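Q: What structure does this chain adopt?
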Amino acid sequence: MWHPPHELPPLLGEAVHIWSVRLDINPAQVHRLGETLAEDERERAAAFRFAHLRARFVVTRAVVRQLLARYVGAGATPSSLRFRYGAFGKPSLIETHEDVPLSFNVSHSDELALIAVARGRDVGVDVEGVRAIANADGIAERYFCAPEREALRSSQDESKTTLFLTYWTRKEALLKATGDGLSVPLDRVDVSGVLGEQPQLVFVLDGSGAPRQLALVDLKPAGGYIGALAVEGSGWQLSCWRWPDSGDLT
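A:
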C-alpha cells in the first residue's frame, strides 16, 4: 500500500483509487507542473503570500490534472481539462464524454495531499497533519455529537489529539462526498462507532434532508498524518498509491 506504481493502474469496475502526493518538491518541478494550470488557477497561486504555500497549491492542482487526464484518456491532456464547482465548492469534470463519469475529491494538509478517484459514485477525502489542537474540548462541544464528546472527555493527551482528528477527518470526508461541506452541521453526523480498519456503512442526511448511504474508512497515508475516505454505496475495492516524488508517472 502507498507505493508508487510503475504506470497508472486502470480504474475499472468497482475500483476506488486514492493517491498520496508529497507537495514539497524542487522548484524546477513546481515550475514545470505549473505550466499545465488554467489561468484562474495561476491567479490563485499568485495570490499566496508565501512561496512554499504557493508551490504546494501548484503541485496539488497540477497532479490532479495529470491524474484525471490519464484516467479520462481519449487524447485528454492535463491543461485541456475543465472543471465546474458545486454550490459548496466541490469540483467535478465537465466534457469528458465518458459513459461512466469520473468523480474525484482532494484534500491537503501541510506537505501532503490526498486525491480520491472513482467512476460513477461520489467520493470524499480528508487529511490532517497530527498536531496539538488548542481547546479540543471546546471545539467538540460546538461541532461534535454527544457520543463523540464523551469519548473525547475520556481520552488523555496524545490519544485525545488522535481521536479528535480521526473524528474530524471522518466527518469532513462524509460531507465532502455528499457535496454539502460545512453547510450540514457536523454534530448531525455521528462517526464514533466506526471501527476504521474496514469500510463501514454510515447513513447521513445531505443538505436537502435526503438520506445517503456512504462507506467510511480511516487512512494512514504517511507518518504524522490522519485521513479518512468516504465512498458512495458498497462493494467497491480500494487501492492506495503514492504519486512519484519526481512529479510525474513514467
